[in-house]
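Appendix C: a fully annotated inverse folding record. The material below is reproduced so that readers can follow the format used throughout the book. The structure is listed first as tokens, followed by the designed sequence.
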């Protein structure tokens, strides 16, 4: 996986503990709200395991925060944001990397991310749903998107756009690293802190 070793990297476990403490939610309480086990949460907070992207969505929903809350402390939102490649805040997950491209600091209704997936990496076992729309541009390799019951194979240059209320998940079925630009947009500002919801896969 290629990325700048100098880029800021977030320790999800400590950030999760901070978010939980700020909201005065016990481990057991968060387990109940998120549908995850207290043991799984403990493993994440102690850095013994990295949560999948779908698990991060579950936690964001349970905590009542935006997914970008896992990228660091709240910052002032600006009407214009410039991010140098080596300064993207990144969140690693099993066999992948999720990089913020300025959405955490932007006032508008758009959240762009850079996704890097090693072979076999994916969003996790659960489908995701959220408000607004999702745009995906495959930059390298192959990324398979499941939207409801349809499967889409995206190769370099291919794109996909869909209403994000549709159940979806993604993975890299290939043998090499895959990259994609993902843009979440048009979600309600009132829904910004409740953007990502989670439903179990059937």
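Designed amino acids, in order:
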């Amino acid at each position: 996986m290629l990325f700048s070793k100098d880029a800021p990297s977030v320790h999800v476990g400590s950030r999760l503990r901070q978010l939980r403490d700020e909201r005065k939610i016990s481990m057991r309480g968060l387990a109940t709200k998120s549908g995850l086990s207290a043991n799984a949460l403990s493993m994440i907070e102690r850095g013994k395991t990295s949560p999948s992207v779908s698990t991060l969505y579950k936690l964001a929903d349970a905590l009542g925060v935006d997914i970008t809350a896992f990228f660091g402390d709240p910052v002032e939102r600006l009407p214009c944001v410039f991010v140098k490649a080596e300064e993207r805040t990144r969140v690693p997950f099993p066999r992948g990397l999720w990089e913020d491209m300025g959405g955490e600091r932007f006032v508008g209704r758009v959240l762009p991310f850079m996704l890097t997936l090693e072979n076999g990496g994916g969003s996790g076992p659960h489908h995701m749903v959220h408000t607004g729309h999702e745009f995906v541009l495959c930059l390298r390799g192959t990324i398979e998107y499941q939207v409801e019951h349809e499967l889409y194979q995206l190769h370099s240059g291919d794109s996909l756009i869909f209403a994000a209320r549709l159940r979806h998940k993604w993975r890299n079925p290939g043998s090499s690293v895959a990259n994609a630009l993902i843009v979440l947009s048009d979600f309600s500002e009132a829904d910004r802190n409740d953007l990502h919801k989670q439903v179990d896969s059937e």
